[in-house]
Amino acid sequence: MGIAPARDTQNIERGVRVIAALCMAMGWAGSLQAAGEVAALDQVVVTGSRIERPVLDAPLRTEVVGRAELERTHARSLKEGLENVPGLQLREIHGKAGHEVVLQGLSGDQVLVLVDGLPLTATTGSTVDVSQLAVLDIERIEVVKGALSAQYGSAAMGGVVNVITRRIEPGFSGEIRGDFGSFGEQNPSGTTADAGNRHTGLRLEGGSERFRIRLTGDQRQRDGIDPDPESWARPGDATDRQQYDLRGEWHPSPGGAFHLQAGRFQEDIDSRYDLRLPGRTVAQSRFEDVTRNRFQGGGHWHWRNGVSLRGQVLDEQLSIDTIKQSSDQRFDDRDADIGLGQLSVQGDVPLTVGQHLHMGVDLRREDLRQLKDGSSELEGSAVERDSQEFWSQLTLTPPAQWFGGGFPLAADQAELLLGVRAQDDSDFGQHVVGSANLRLELWQGASSTGALRLGWGQGYRVPNLKERHFRFDHSQLGYVVIGNPELQPEESNSFQAGWTHSWGRWLWLELGLFDNQLRNLIQVDADSAEVDAQGIQQFRYDNVERARTRGVELGSQVRLWEDVRLVGGYTFMQTRDQDTGGALTRRPRHQGRLGLDWSLWRATEISLRARYQSDELVDSNSGARSPSWTVLDFRLNYTLTRTLGLFAGIDNLFDRQRDFADPADFSPVAGRFVYLGARYRFGDR
Question: Exposed, middle or buried, 451 (CB in 10 Å: 0-12/13-18/19+)?
Fold first, then answer.
């Protein structure tokens, strides 16, 4: 869907006027201030190799979204925190008010989402909805692309998104945050001035050197998005998401710490749609309640000789209840309960200078129960799966002679990371995968450094219980997807290469190449569709594809002046279904990111974030394509006092929105969204 030039002009003029009004409302004050930190370049990361190190020194390329970026862009959820990561696609989960992560063309089914190294249970298919997780206690988000790290098992074929929570410091501190905004004429009430989206958050933490505690609470409410409030159907669902977490820590010595954490997430979704049946259209509603109870504990201990031991335990119970309603009845009352338990133990042993051995064991169990109108939809009352996984990684600093006498390298300018993972699954038996990554610092000048990264890794993903047994009911969209107990594991080979060059804190450039080759890719088999008596298509999962994704990624960051920073990224990707010779669906060929941060006056910072996505194939049979789109977000932060800050923003400044009459259009659901908010911090630190 294109946007008419006249509407473009009106949108631009309207957007400029709104920016001007917000700037005037905040007030302009003071003298120049240096911009915030150089985004992520000095961040310490752990996801790639489990060794803390600066991101530029890590053997696996890691994208980092730090706390400063989360606050600067007013992120409320993990989805909003990931929006500006280059090469990362946030795809709307079909039939649900949520989003999944796609990395290098591999969908959310193949991307592992972790919180402090422990997995989250998927709420739809094998996909984690990143719209659900709040960010108030997040320190940073680390993203590793491709199956390059042996320490992560099933579901990490496409990469890993690891959420690292904040450390609790001694003393006392807290934060209260709130914001509200409007979708204008698309508020379901039809009133432009209504606050169609509301968010509140609270964080309290503190304690002594030995005992510390943190409590966080977050609520995000959205009334929905409706271009035609007079009609019954509402394209954007109404949602109410609440998250509460309580964490306690014991620090008996500088070398050791232990923690316990309990969390609860509650999501209520209200969908309204017109169901088109043969000869008639029926107005229906669908209500979904999701409850996640998550308990975890663990600890670590470091000895003076460099040996360390870490252990974590997780128990998570997920409940998904859905029911449908027409004008005269309620029906299809479906309840699903999913359990996930994991015990992880990791040991790190320094061998010699620059050489480290890392070993770990992950014991995992899953169970699934599903009822429809009180009767089980599974063979028996429940299905279960257990797995035992052992992994080992060896970090080596090779001597210079490994690369030839004419190839001078200092002792710390080369690093080799070798890994292996063995898995024994109760349903699929044993399997072993490997990985190898090399980082060479080939250029070390007076003012700049350059490094080459080469990586290879094998991926192996066992289909989860939901893909094999669950019934995904999207009949409001005209179809359902039925689990297939005969599914086989997916496998892949991932190849990555990249060059990173940095000029101090002023300029950073990166070029990356990737090639992912997949076998037994699990997809919905469109050729096996059947139509029931109500005209609803019934699909099944199947191992229907061999596929390949490959491409080029470019990234850059430059500080134009002391108070102006520019960041950008571009990804070109080719995909191929090797069974049919065509392209894979819902994988855009081009993606771009561009961001600008400007500390305009002493207490004021302006940020712009632009995202571009090219058109993408939606249906291989018809050739239907979703159009390209560009979105620009505006952010304004104003520090009123040391403890009080005001902020405002405009999402989708130029109101780029999909054509809801075109089922092949997957442009953004939400149009322009304008909001105001405040953040208050208190305490003795």
Answer: buried
Nearest to 133 by CA among 155, 160, 165, 107: 165
What distance in Å separates the CA atoms of residue 251 and residue 253, rounded to the nearest whole number? 6
| Tokens read off for 576 | 């191929």
The pLDDT-based confidence of 3 (bands split at 50, 70, 90) is very low
User: Please, is 193 exposed, middle or buried when counting C-beta atoms within 10 Å of its C-beta (0-12, 13-18, 19+)?
Assistant: exposed
Measure the CA–CA gap between 420 and 431, rounded to whole angstroms: 11
Between CA 150 and CA 156, with CA 153 as vertex, the angle to 5 degrees is: 90
CATH class of 5-37+172-683: mainly beta
Give ∠ CA 559-560-565 in degrees, rounded to 5. Answer: 50
Instruction: Mark out the alpha helices in 163-312 (DSSP H runs).
Output: none
Q: What share of the chain is helix, strand, coil (3-state, %, to 5)?
A: 10, 60, 35
For the entire predicted model, the pTM comes to 0.91
Q: Are strands 414-425 and 471-474 parallel, antiparallel or unpaired?
A: unpaired
Helix (H) or strand (E) holding 199: strand 197-207
User: What distances in angstroms separate CA 355 from CA 396, 432, 436, 442, 452, one per listed residue?
Assistant: 5, 24, 15, 20, 20
Q: Which two tokens stand for residue 2?
A: 């294109």
Report whether 93 contacts 127 (CB < 8 A): yes
Residue 42 has pLDDT above 90, yes or no: no
CB 130 within 8 A of CB 120: no
The model's pLDDT over 484-508, given as tens digits with 9 standing for 90+, comes to 889 999 999 999 999 999 998 789 9
